[in-house]
Predict the 3D structure of the following.
Amino acid sequence: MTRRARIYIAIVSALGMLAMVVCCWKYFVSLQGIPFRVYGWQLLFLIGLCALCRSFPITIRKDQGLDLSVLAILSAFMMHGTAMAMVVYAVSSLITFERQSDGTVHSIYNISPVKTFFNTANIMIAILVPGLICRLLPWQPGDLSFPMVLLPTLVFSLLAFFLNYLILLLMFYLNGDMGLREAFKILLGLSTNVIAAMPLGLIIALVLAQPMGGWLTLILICPLMLARYAWKLYLDTSRHKDELITAFISAIEARDAYTQGHSTRVADYTEKIARQMGMKDKDIALLREGALLHDIGKIGVSDQILHKNGPLSAEEWVVMKQHPTIGTEIVAKVGLDERVVEIIQSHHERYDGSGYPNGKPIGECSLATRIMGVADAFDAMTSERPYRKGIPVDMAIEELCKGSGTQFDPAVVEVMVKLIREDAI
């Protein structure tokens, strides 16, 4: 870790922990003389809710999760102010146990104290600053009447969110892990999370303020946790599919050392071409799957042919040309998307219909398959094989241009050449 990042972490930790101690002390002093039964159940309920949300975050995508502790923090702030929100988060840290994807459980008892102090201080600052700003509004905590409650809800939620992630991303920037532009893009990308959670936090505050509010809130939270569990099952299935794809790639590369890295490079090329051509993220993900698995059928080709140190004979080519069909049969049994199956089956078809295995014009195939054909050919030309060396990139560009309109889709070739010349590939 860089020196400036360590200094930054120390400053944030000191300020945040000091704010936590002062605000928590003031909060409990303000409760002197008030019976515990008056405020205790709400405080304990929100602490439990915060710990529950932190222990079971909702995974939105494979690389992105949503910590719904903002629901408890926002509810505490709307009902009783900044100090209670800080108490709720601080105390919930003692009973938060988050299971990781590798099966380990993280808590303040088994992670680095430096990380614990920084993360806690980050949240404390992200609660305190918006809370102080909300004091300037014509509103007081506990006033849940409409429309007065809407503005402080919006101000507190958005400021707390942006300040929280800004402090975190600034630490990554100071450590050299990312640039400012990348950090800003991540910040904007995550903003939809808090916008989605904000109304529910206000609803919980409104429900808790009612008689039997705790039980009503549990009824409100239960469907959310069930939805989280169902979504987790889906993502687990998706992760298992990714692991299966990785295993297939390993099996291919174990058979043919000269193609090691070929599938991954082709997948990277196809993704860049597809983005340049305006394909949707979901279609790009399927294209990438197909690119990673396009040579899976070579598992069914004999080593004598696969490792031959020279050009293949006519009879050997007949066998080699079966690998798209073999690959199609393999992945069809796994239950992959039909668009992935098409890429594997048709990645050697040609624009003029003289390719294999079916000899159909590639214009009849999907855009993903046409992209796959260009990317696969480029990497095959520039990579070494047992019987030849890879050709220079300039020569590969010439070959792509020669094949444009006969072997390859001209529109895809144009984009590929543009990306190569821009050093994007």
Notes: The beta strands are 58-61, 64-66, 98-99, 105-106. The mean pLDDT is 85. Residues 19 and 385 are 64 Å apart (CA to CA).
